[in-house]
Amino acid sequence: MQHQQRDGRFIGLQLLAGLLMSWVTVIGGCSGNGEEGQAGPPDGNNGGGPPPARVRFGEVREEILQDRWSVIGRLAEVSRAAIASEQPGRILEVYVEEGDEVHGPRDGEPGTLLARLDSTFTEISINELDADIAEAQANIAERTARMQRLESEYEFLAGLLRTDSARQKEVDDARMELAAGRARLLAGEAMLATLKAQRTRREEELRRSKIYAEFDGVVVRRLAEPGQWASQGSVIAEVVSRGRIDALIDVPEDLIAATGVGQEMNIHIDAWELDLSGKVVSIVPRAAGAARTFPVKVRLSDMVKMPVAATDLVTVDEPGRDADPIKIERRLLPGMSISAMIPTGEPVRVFTVPRDAVLFTAGGEVIWYAANGISGRVMVRTLFSEGDRVAVRLLQPDANFEAGLRVVIEGAERLMAPGQPLMDAELAPNQMPDGPPANEEEPNALETSGEDRAWAGAIEPSPPCGSVDSPPLSPICDKWRPGVAPLAMSEN
């Protein structure tokens, strides 16, 4: 019995010693004092200060800009037409599909042929009219010859009457016959004109049995098929114009006074992140319901050039040749979403920074900057955007904030407090202060290092419970390390 009690006390002492060693290990890892084997301040940060943070920089500019208000809108076609048949008939062929490009009349030639109607009876009618016209022309020739004969007889009898060799009644009859002959000739000529007009009508019907595009555009709807009967006015296809396009924006009533016809306006194509400029061509004087916004049209060209890296399109294999940016053409499409900047005030002098320089925090908008290689922070308020930059106003005076100041555009979320040294991530390793040697692999410039976390007071987590590196009697683990048998406990 005494032997069992001595074993129990011995095992209890072992447990107590293990717990004490575990606490010493954890506490020693958390409270570094610079001695060997303990965590201390990172090397090269001058007595335990924060390590240099690797960031990327932009630049502060001072510009004269005009405050603008962003309004949304969409692109709309300049012209949209439902091209229809002008006469009834059976559709023989439809030559276009949805999405096909068409063109209007050029140099006296008709536009793109869209469809063709059956013109058999029209052609037969033209042939009949040709025969009638020939007959009418023959009748006119006959009546012309008869009238000439009547004129000769009348002149002969009139001469005899002057010598009393003819009676007055004979002369009068000849004159009346001549007048009747002239009337018949005029009737024949009128009939010929009528027949020619009918033939012209039939020719026009024959021409209009082919349906052409009236302007440059693209087919957006095909509404007819071969074999279908087309009545007068039946729509064959719907076409929207190309070449020009309108940016249709809804301007609030309090900003409409600052907008005028002929004014230049910046338009942003949201889908392509593309900025364009166009002129206001019309302001519709009709407010849209309770919103009290007025439609404004800005005319643009629908073909734009967008810069694209050459390596995206071609292979650069010539020695010394760089992959210079090139431009490709793209066409703006009706219905695309846009935004426009409406001037709201006079031009003013403001500070502008890259968009990425403004960091949104719980306390407001913040800009981090580098003054003599040391970080600083200033509270700002964004005023308006100008391309890829934003105009800002300082909420507190800062003597360092001026044109040319370098501001952090990437990596600001890693900064801990003003006064931390900053390192430009764009520089090569051998150009960085306190950086690793050039022949050593450099860590990611914007990746948080273990030294940063140690300086910030973050305790490196202990090995997970159950791993081979965890202490056998760690107080933060609720189970024993695998491979280490638990000590036998005495019942006493």
Summarize the structure.
The protein is an alpha+beta fold and 492 residues long. Helices cover 24% and strands 33% of the residues. A 6-stranded antiparallel β-barrel has the order 2-11-14-13-12-17. A 4-stranded antiparallel β-sheet has the order 3-10-8-5, with no helix packed on it. The protein has a 4-stranded antiparallel β-sheet with strand order 7-6-4-9.
Radius of gyration: 47 Å
Name the quaternary structure. single chain
Report the strand count: 23
By CATH, the architecture of the domain at 53-67 and 346-450 is named Beta Barrel
The largest beta-sheet arranges its strands as 2-11-14-13-12-17
Percent in strands: 25-35%
Q: How can the largest sheet be summarized?
A: 6 strands, antiparallel, barrel
CATH fold description of the domain at 53-67 and 346-450: conserved putative lor/sdh protein from methanococcus maripaludis s2 fold
Q: Uncertain regions: pLDDT < 50 for 5+ in a row? A: 24-46, 309-324, 431-492
Compute the separation of the termini in Å. 11 Å
Class by SSE composition: alpha+beta
Could you tell me the mean pLDDT? 77
**Secondary-structure element series:** HEEEEEEHHEEEEEEEEEEEEEEEEEH
Description:
This protein is of the alpha+beta class. Among the domains are: 120 residues, conserved putative lor/sdh protein from methanococcus maripaludis s2 fold (Beta Barrel); 90 residues, Helix Hairpins (Orthogonal Bundle), CATH 1.10.287; 32 residues, no CATH class. It is 24% helix and 33% strand. It contains 4 helices and 23 strands. The strands form 4 sheets. A 6-stranded antiparallel beta barrel has the order 2-11-14-13-12-17. The protein has a 4-stranded antiparallel beta sheet with strand order 3-10-8-5, with no helix packed on it. A 4-stranded antiparallel beta sheet has the order 7-6-4-9. The N and C termini lie close together (11 Å). The C terminus is likely disordered.
